[in-house]
Amino acid sequence: MTTKIAFIGFGGVGQTLAKLLYEKKDEFFKKYDLDFEVVAVSDVMKGSLYNPNGLNVSRLIETINKTGNLKAYSDESGLVRGMDSLETIKKSNADVIVEVTFTDVETGQPAIDHCKAAFKEGKSVVTTNKGPVALAYRELSKLAKENNAYWGFEGTVMSGTPALRLPLVTLAGNKIKEIRGILNGTTNYMITEMEKGCSYEEALKKAQNLGYAEADPTSDVDGFDARYKATILANYVMNTELKANDIPCVGIRNITNEKVSEALRENKVWRLIAKIKGDENGQVKASVQPELIEINDPLAGVSGATNAIVYECDLAGSIMLTGPGAGLTETAYSLLIDLLHFKNQ
Ligand code: HSE
Question: Do 248 and 226 share a structural domain?
Fold first, then answer.
């Protein structure tokens, strides 16, 4: 059966996923019995289109590439223009909403309202937005469950590197005692550039030019981005009710070239480490801060924008996962993982 998709937000990640589903349509159908149709796109900047019979993805992408928005998408039978995000979620015939809007991580909006609206309609959501998961995980997962809807958010931590499914699905049966990770690519890139002699400002500029940093890099350098990811890991993987504000957070502003060089002379490196640890009484505590770690620590070898995470498992031992934590294809891929699981649930 064909699964109908609505894109809420249609920036780089959404477009990359749409292209991926279109270009690999035959392969996904043969391999996974997966047949998707894009029925709606609603984007505050680019405009909105809805066709219950399906939109033409190659024409969507072509129109955006040529004109920057969706106005010039030619008329076709059944086409409706101009529905806003909530109307699209409520009124379209989509089964699953791909929520990839630009979201304010401090309020989680508008993504939280998009998820709520979808779940109330019994529609499923896949998203890469950290806000709804970091700020409203309990409320939204309850709402999804009550309405038999699926909620996938693999890409919120380490994009397409499966930091959430690895501990819960692949390592099922273990008790995860501790999680330590490098969860922010920008700051790790900056620190390793500083190890090569770059100044803090130069390293930040380079990270911004390479597209690693958030629109407001404060979220990266002050550790807030890593703190949201630690909140998601604490709630979802370690099943504890920890709020972002409960996690002490120090960023990398005080890391200087002198400190970095001095550490290297002592066979150590600075890394921005997110840590989530449970004690014997089951109480979970978390922190995000720069830590001076020995050169033979598995996280010390992680350089550039790469992310890494170590799960301390009671049965499987210490398991490390490393890979990209950002990137258009990688993030679009994380949504594909969720769509595959949605299809197979
Ligand atoms: N700015 C983030 C990072 C992007 O540098 O890791 C992915 O969340």
Answer: yes
- The pLDDT tens digits of the residues spanning 264-308 come to 999 999 999 999 999 888 899 999 999 999 999 999 999 999 999
pLDDT band of residue 104 (cuts 50, 70, 90) is confident
CA of 263 to the centre of ligand 1 (A): 25
Query: Is 310 annotated as ligand-binding?
Result: no
Examine the domain organization and report whether 187 and 272 are in the same domain. yes
Query: CA-CA distance, 241 to 246, in Å (whole number)?
Result: 10
CA of 252 to the centre of ligand 1 (A): 14
Say if residue 336 is in the same domain as residue 252. no
Mean pLDDT confidence for 67-78:
95
Burial 232-270 (b: 16+ CB within 10 A, else e): bbbbbbbebebebeebebebbeebeeeebeebeeeebbb
- Residues 66, 50: Cα–Cα separation, whole Å: 20
Domain range for 89: 2-160+328-344
Q: Measured in angstroms, how far is the CA atom of residue 218 from the centroid of ligand 1?
A: 11
Q: Does 98 count as an annotated binding residue? A: no
On whether both 141 and 200 belong to a single domain, the answer is no
Is 13 annotated to bind ligand? yes
156 and 14 assigned to the same domain: yes
Determine the atom of ligand 1 nearest the C-alpha atom of 186: 5
Pocket lining for ligand 1, CB < 6 angstroms: 184-186, 212-214, 220, 225, 325-326
Q: What are phi and psi of 310, to 5 degrees?
A: -120, 125
Return the CATH number at 281.
3.30.360.10
Residues 127 and 270 in one domain: no
Which residue, by CA, sits nearest to atom 4 of ligand 1?
326
